[in-house]
From TrEMBL:
Top-rank EC class of the record's enzyme: transferase
Alphabetized GO MF terms: methyltransferase activity
Region (Disordered): 1-27
Record protein name field: Class I SAM-dependent methyltransferase
SUPFAM superfamilies assigned: S-adenosyl-L-methionine-dependent methyltransferases
Record InterPro entries: Methyltransf_11 (IPR013216), Methyltransf_Superfamily (IPR050508), SAM-dependent_MTases_sf (IPR029063)
Chain ranges of the Methyltransferase type domain: 80-172
Keywords noted in UniProt: Methyltransferase, Transferase
EC number, as in UniProt: 2.1.1.-
Membrane-spanning intervals of the chain: none
One BP annotation, GO: methylation
C-alpha cells in the first residue's frame, strides 16, 4: 500500500513534556497513526500475525492467557476491540466463533485491516465517543489501543462500560507505569531511572509551530485503578507479563535485556457488574 504521507517530506518533530488536552491528543494521534501505519505494519506485522491475539511486545498470547475467558466461552459473543489497528486480535476472535467489531481512530490502520481481509466489521471512531447503543457487547478488549494515548481515560472507560452488557469484561493492556521513570531505550542506557514516576506530564512530539503530532499520557498504577473504578468497573486482576526466553526481538524500548529486569506491560482485567 502506498503511504498517505511520505515521512521523508516532514521535519523531525521535537520531543517534549507538556500538557495536552483531549482534543489535541485525539487530533495528534489520529494523524500520527495515519502517517505511520504503513511502517508500523511492515515492522511489526510478522510478530503480530494476521489472526493472532498478542497483548504486548512480550508476546503474551490470549491463547495461553485466557484473560477474556476460555476460548470455547467466546463462541457467539459480541466483542468490541478498541484501537484495533489492522484487526489482528479481532480476526483471531472470529476464528473462535465470536462476533468481533474492530474499532480504530486511524483510517490508515483500518485500510491495513482491509488489505489483510476477513469478515470483521471495521469502524473508525474515537474511543471516547463510541458509536454503539447501550449494552451492545458481551466483552471488550484493547491491546495497547486508545488508553495510553487519551487525556481522559475515565471518559473512555465510561463509554466502554456503557456499551457492555452486565457481567461483561473489559481487558486492556498499556505500557507499564514504571517504564515512565526510565529512558525509552532497549539497551543498558534504559536501565537507570531518569525521571519521576509521579510526573504525569504527557510526552508530546510537536512540529515547528508547536502543534502536537503525537501524544502519550502517563498514569501511575494507582491512577489506573482509580480510573477503572471511576469508570464503573470492578478490577479483578493486573497482569504483568514476564519476558519469555523465546522472544529475542526489540520493539522500541522493549527488549530482552530490560524485559528480564523490569515490567514493560500491564494488563488490566475489569468487570462490569
Amino acid at each position: 500500500m502506498e503511504p498517505i504521507i511520505q515521512e521523508s517530506a516532514l521535519p523531525e518533530p521535537e520531543a517534549t513534556r507538556r500538557a495536552a488536552n483531549v482534543t489535541e491528543s485525539s487530533r495528534a494521534n489520529r494523524g500520527w497513526w495515519d502517517r505511520n501505519a504503513d511502517d508500523y505494519q511492515v515492522e511489526h506485522g510478522t510478530f503480530l500475525g494476521d489472526d493472532r491475539f498478542v497483548w504486548g511486545p512480550e508476546g503474551l498470547d490470549e491463547v495461553e492467557a485466557e484473560l477474556l475467558g476460555p476460548p470455547e466461552s467466546l463462541k457467539g459473543k459480541d466483542i468490541l476491540e478498541i484501537g484495533a489497528g489492522a484487526a489482528q486480535c479481532s480476526r483471531w476472535l472470529l476464528t473462535q466463533g465470536a462476533r468481533p467489531v474492530a474499532l480504530d481512530l486511524s483510517h490508515r490502520q483500518l485500510q491495513h485491516a482491509l488489505r489483510i481481509g476477513g469478515d470483521v466489521p471495521l469502524v473508525q471512531a474515537d474511543a471516547g465517543v463510541l458509536p454503539f447503543k447501550d449494552g451492545s457487547f458481551d466483552l471488550a478488549c484493547s491491546a495497547y489501543g486508545a488508553l495510553p494515548f487519551v487525556a481522559d481515560p475515565v471518559l473512555v472507560l465510561k463509554e466502554v462500560h456503557r456499551v457492555l452488557r452486565p457481567g461483561g469484561r473489559f481487558v486492556f493492556s498499556a505500557t507499564h507505569p514504571i517504564r515512565w521513570a526510565f529512558p525509552d531505550e532497549p539497551g543498558p542506557e534504559g536501565l537507570s531511572v531518569a525521571a519521576s514516576y509521579f510526573d504525569r506530564t504527557p510526552y508530546v512530539e510537536q512540529d515547528e509551530q508547536g502543534n502536537a503530532v503525537y501524544v502519550e499520557h502517563h498514569r501511575t498504577i494507582g491512577d489506573r485503578v482509580r480510573d477503572i473504578v471511576a469508570g464503573g468497573f470492578r478490577l479483578i486482576d493486573i497482569v504483568e507479563p514476564e519476558w519469555p526466553a523465546w522472544n529475542t526481538q526489540e520493539w522500541g524500548g522493549w527488549s530482552p535485556l530490560r524485559g528480564n529486569l523490569i515490567p514493560g506491560t500491564a494488563i488490566y482485567v475489569c468487570v462490569r457488574d
